[in-house]
Amino acid sequence: MARISHIQLSRRERQIMDIIYRKGRATAIEVQEALEDPPSYSAVRAALRILEEKGHLKHHKDGQRYVFQPTLERGRARRTALQHLVRTFFDGSAEELVATLLEVEKKELSEDELARLSRLIEQARQEGR
User: Fold this and answer.
1) What residues does each domain of the chain span?
2) pTM for the whole thing?
3) Closest listed residue to residue 117, CA positions, set 127, 108, 109, 126
4) pLDDT digit string (tens) for the chain, length 129 residues
5) What topology is assigned to 1-89 in CATH?
6) Contact 42, 115 (CB under 8 A)
7) Are 25 and 71 contacting, i.e. CB atoms less than 8 angstroms apart?
8) Which residue in 66, 3, 6 sits closest to 30, CA to CA?
């Protein structure tokens, strides 16, 4: 499996990845049709090729079409990206990440959100993380 590049994705690349994650797999034309204010077909193909070179996508041939799919399931891709973010910007501290996120959000968390966070913290304590 190709190594995922942690180079930040462009806005268009993120849009394309969101489409492919939502669909599970897609051709260039399907991606183009799903994009808001879509670029040309050749621009979509180029972006898909770049995402494949970065290790985010793989393809297989289905007749004359190339069908693209993520190299990682979405949850694993999120965890990988988050681990990189924590190491890069928070000196490996999950506590610093969470504190910053809560400061930035500025909105009040719902009771359900607070309860879920409390459960996750308690689970982490019990697992000795």
Assistant:
1) 1-89, 92-129
2) 0.65
3) 109
4) 445 655 578 899 989 999 999 999 999 999 999 999 999 999 999 999 999 999 999 999 999 999 999 998 888 878 877 888 898 899 999 889 888 888 877 677 788 988 998 999 899 899 885
5) Arc Repressor Mutant, subunit A (1.10.10)
6) no
7) no
8) 66
